[in-house]
Amino acid sequence: MEKSYQPELFEKELYNSWQVQGLFTPKVDTTKKPFTIVIPPPNITDQLHIGHAYNNSLQDCIIRYKRLKGYNTLWLPGTDHASIATEVKIINQLSSEGLDKDKIGREEFLRRAYLWNDKYGSRIIEQLKELGCSCDWSRTAFTMDEKCSKAVKEVFVKLYNKKLIYQGSKIINWCPHCKTALSDAEVEYEEKDSFLWHFKYFSVDGKESLEFATTRPETMLGDTALAVNPTDKRYSKFIGKKFIVPFVNREIPVVADNYVEKDFGTGVVKITPAHDPNDFEVGLRHDLPLIKILNDDGTMNQNAQQFANLDRYVCRKQIVDEMTKLGQCVKIEPYKHNVGSCYRCNTVIEPIISKQWFVSMGTLAKPAIKVVKEGKVKFIPKRFDKIYFDWMENIKDWCISRQLWWGHRIPVWYCQDCKQVICQTETPTKCCKCGGTNLQQDNDVLDTWFSSALWPFSTLGYPEKTADLNYFFPTDVLVTMYDLIFFWVARMIFSSIENMGDIPFNTVLIHGMVKDELGRKMSKSLGNGVDPVPFIQKFGADTLRFSLINGVSIGNDMKFNASKVENTRNFMNKIWNASRFVLMNCLDKTILPLEKCKLNLADKWILSKLNNLIKDVTKNMDNYELGIASTMLYDFMWSEFCDWYIEFSKPILYGTDDIARQSNLSVLVYVLDKLLKMLHPFIPFITEKIYQDLPNASGTIMNQTYPIAKRNYYKKQENLIEIVKDAVSKIRFVRAENKVAPSKRIRLFISLSLDLNPQDITAYIEKLTNSTVSYVNDCQENGASLVTTLGEIFIPLGDMVDVEKEIARIEQEIEKANAELTLAQGKLSNQRFIDKAPVTLVEAEKQKVQHYTEIIVKLTEKKNNLVNN
After folding, report:
1. Residue ranges of the alpha helices (H) in 239-344?
2. What is the pLDDT of residues 791-803, one digit of tens each?
3. CB 274 within 8 A of CB 353
4. I want to staple 793 with a disulfide (CB 3.0 to 4.6 A). Which of 38, 141, 731, 786 is the partner?
């Protein structure tokens, strides 16, 4: 081994070796139990960020653990085409060349998109390899590859034929910047400061008015009614009457509808059916016209008349100004409310009537809710199933069409001759109704999440009945963040049940968000994002991985702290140095199996502690409590193995008893071997590197067996060493407190309170405290007396200090204190000082007198004790 831990010398070499050996690529083997994870596919626009590093470190930790436990493990990787995000990238690229998508046409646009994927799609894959991810790269999938595309078409046609996919005009979320529809899950809401504008409309005869409030004044141009509650006596006389919408001079009725809360606001609500989901429902009930007033880019259309072509917010300001001039603006009050924005570009969305494709969710949601309630799919931590239920039990039909070019084009064709709608997986050559060949495919593409919802089975070959699909599906655990529960997790569950007749996975492991040191979400606008690659290059992948997992409670957000990465590097150094110490002592030595070793007390202690560690770590790993398991391993490796057991071993290793030395070395190697295997899922590179140098190592650590705990393993000896450790720790504390040099040997007088053989423990205490131990019935006075589980321990004062030097030092301290005391007393005896000095200053001098007097008394007492010792 190299003298120091230098991960750059072996991490890449080891990873390449693993790949060449095909260690990440499982074969279908019905004699072994499979364990499958499908990676949450990163977007092809992404590069590795600290959230990816955390998420994938967790997955790799789990898959490596299961591999060591004997499972036939598949961690299936891949990337997502990310319709909106990628299209924005291509549009920006075109813009830099003075082009736009309409100029170059759909075919050229898609060609550029695939070139983008070829250039950047594999970027994050290569970075995941740097992190040490043991994915089966031979099975890498892409949401728009031939296999996944076939699955998308199959599922769409199947749901269409079952009338679970339909086309209709509804209120959808529209992004004026991306110029596409969004599902509810793609809208992020944030409370923002705004205003509530109170306007009034006059009746047709101008004699009466009704006041209402709105947060979107510009939408009044699309109003087709005013609504009141049918039980509100204040407005019963207005029901059926007509009022005028200013500027467009539209006569609109007052309708009675229970949607209106009579105790909220004025009790009057403006109804804009084409621009509000609740108003849309009111419009259906009262057969109101739908008047759309916005263009796709967020400007006002011709229905806005004098405000046509204005930006929506410019129009808002002009509407308010004009209503004020007309005397119809009653008041304006500050108002906080939730505003929805596009999750990709942060543009404020517009609810708008639009003809789109929808998935009918009523039928699909019920079985997906049931499997979670019955525990067939478990959320860890369990509290996250509430988010799932809240979403699924109130779910709306899913808008799946997007007005983009990059993505899975909807497999629907329209006959231009007879208007027949054709939905099938293959491109039709003629109309199934009239035989005509004038067919046009739907221009829209599917929501990215539609293909991602099929990920657990489309990646394994669906709709073909492949060997992979039969063997590796259902998958076992999904590792993702809480913000994807409704985006992705819920959709995978109902899609899998509908298309495969089974759940997609049995466990959903939810981790928190990685935030900056101040607890803020990382974002481009704040400039607080963290690139993990420099940390990998500087400290090694193992260091970064362990720093992200260690001590982090699953499901909770974590703050990324660069100092934690640096501190974790110290842990890697500790492992390296301890392993090097063991291996250097193993040179030319035969390592015995445990049953042939002559075990001493410390050997039995470490084996018992190791046995408990195996049991506890295994339990936590099985429960996916990786943060707890890693902390247990950290503490054991650092403290029990390095700080204690290796120190217990040194007298034997440096001694003359060859049999004892060989046994002790064998135990050291045995314990190190087990620790490396348990640490391997967390820190794969360093554990593999050290394992290769172990005596009797066999092949790669990845193919070894995870340690198994035994029963009743040297519990009595474990307790005895723990008692010794307690005594040693307290003795060391007294030495440090009294600044006793490590090289100075002291005497210990021990009055045992336990029935034990002193010969079992004396050597350990003497070695670890640099002392000579004597056993007595009663401890002496005039020294340090320690009460421990072992018994009372006395350390003579003279053993801890050089009496003559200490007396001389104390006399110097007394002399200094006397000088300060004399100075303070001199000021207080000066009447001029007393008369002119501030009261606080006089009081301070009095306190000095008291303080130094007490110090002199204490120092004199300490000196006398030393003189009389």
Report:
1. 277-286, 312-325
2. 888 888 778 776 7
3. yes
4. 786
